[in-house]
Amino acid sequence: MGSVVAVSVARPCWQEVYGRQVHTSIVRDASDQPVHFGAGGPEGNATAVHTEEVFAFFAEHYNYWADRLGTDRAAWGACHWGENLMLSGMPGEEDLHIGDRFRVGEALLEVTSPRIPCFKLSWRIGQPESFLRTLIESGRMGCYLRVIEPGNIDAGDMVLPDVHAEGAISVLGLSRLLHDPDVTDLDILRRVLATLGLGGQAAGMIRKRIAFLTDGQLGARGRWQGWRQFEIAGVTDEARDIRSFRLRPADGAAIGGYRAGQFLTVRLPDASGTIRSWSLSDYDQSADHYRISIKRDPQGTASRWMHEVAKPGDRLDVRPPSGRFVLDRSGFMRTVLISAGIGVTPMIAMLKAHAERGAEAPPLLWLHAARSGGEHGFAHEVDALLATMPNAARRIFYSRPAPSDANHDRVGRLDAEAITEMLIESYSLSPFGRVIELTGDYSDFYLCGPRQFEDDFRRALMAHGVNPETIRSERFGSGDPVADGPPAPETAEVRFGEQSLTWRRDDDLTLLELAETAGIAVDSACRAGSCGTCEVGLRAGSVRYLLTPSAAPGKGRVLLCCVQPASTMMELELTTR
């Protein structure tokens, strides 16, 4: 049997936390009057972000942490850790279970999850943010509860057990699961997610991990090695100079899995075996085909061939879907998809994948720039999908609209003014069961368009204080340079199959360039580590990467376009055209 030491309520106000202004209700004092706990939690209480109804912390933990941190226990008054209920004599987190119920004063409360601490707690008790790891590892964090039956609670009231949730996960066990990224067993996660009484915030964190793991498995499903023949099953004109091609496996088997935003690398059946990479412009894991959409470039050999020569029934060699520019469906902040011109293609796949989240999908903002309606690809397809999503909005910019154009929202370019407007406006969402409001800079941004467009937009977002980790972009240029790597030898003997070549450090060639100087035909496309076309087996020796490839090679394999020798002897398993 436990007891209530103190009760508190508070409302959010601005505090300077670690040198920045933060809206929080963690600063509070104990109430000298009984507090009514009703539907939604204590009357007069509100939180800034956290959505659980009641937070309880234990008096015994005050003593433990004061001793461990060397803090004067008297410096922490009642409810100093931000709790609504300071309790004594309670079971520890290892013996509390999700769904356990207790009669506290007149109210009946149910345990829903462990406390999920943030930096405001470490600040409140005078510790650096790094303390949160120590706190989480200890498990001594208290717990959240919900109100089952309303009633008054006052200091001195008894806490009596009412229902024990036999077999449910403990508060400590759930805390460790939530904070341990190595827990990747989907069956375990789904079983915990189904726990009766589980709190909304903990459930949201588990759903996020399930989504992340499930999407991560898609790329491995049905993946093949090397080239595979596909047949053009259909062709559709989407806009002026934009044409879509449906590609179906020639062997009649299923396509491989893929993530929204990835691309296909295609080898054309022309005389030179031209290789190019094009984004997947659709998302349907049950489909029997892929869709790629290509803009005709008057100077582009591959795009002109696809527009002028390719027809249904033609066969193309295709490598499995690749690319790290993918939609993260595990997030809860607003998703902002920003594209220009043919950069819309991966965004359509992302839009469809986002819509699959259904009612759990966060708000979405669709921004697209085109010259005019005639060059606005997939306009009707996108509008039809946005119409099915209650929390979606769009802004279409035409820089040179025709007199008859009507499917745009703004005339002009996506410029600094449009960015500022997007970031200062607020939006509402309810990721864990309670509506919260955030400003536009708290969003997940995805960019795709010409390189200059992506670079300018990224700089503009960061200039407005957007966290760069929330900005993802499609880059058809080089990957990021590798800062530290093994040194290159002065010379190296490199065997390409039966042919041996000498590599010299002063020449500064990649292994792909070395092969080409000797007339060795090697499949390649992007020459920047993005498409995986030049992947070969490494039989002996070691390599150093000049940049971080987005198409990571398999075990024991390397990408010739972005590596040099790191050993004096190398042997490669080469497949030539």
Entry summary:
This protein is of the alpha+beta class. It has 12 helices and 33 strands.
Describe the structure.
The structure is a single chain. The longest helix has 19 residues, at 200-218. This protein has four domains: 2-213, Beta Barrel (M1 Pyruvate Kinase, Domain 3); 228-318, Elongation Factor Tu (Ef-tu), domain 3, CATH 2.40.30; 334-473, Nucleotide-binding domain of ferredoxin-NADP reductase (FNR) module (Rossmann fold); 491-573, Beta-grasp domain (Ubiquitin-like (UB roll), Roll). 20% of the residues lie in helices and 30% in strands. It is globular and about 90 Å long. The protein is α+β, with helices and mostly antiparallel strands and 577 residues long. α5 runs antiparallel to α6. The strands form eight sheets. Strands 1-7-6-10-9-8-12 form a seven-stranded mixed β-barrel. It contains twelve helices and 33 strands. A hairpin with a 2-residue loop joins β27 and β28 (499-504).
In total, the number of domains comes to 4
Q: Could you tell me the strand content as a percent range?
A: 25-35%
CATH superfamily of the largest domain: PK beta-barrel domain-like
CATH topology of the largest domain: M1 Pyruvate Kinase, Domain 3
CATH class descriptor name of the largest domain: Mainly Beta
Question: What's the end-to-end separation, in Å?
Answer: 78 Å
User: Structural class from helices and strands?
Assistant: alpha+beta
CATH architecture of the largest domain: Beta Barrel
Describe the main β-sheet briefly: 7 strands, mixed, barrel
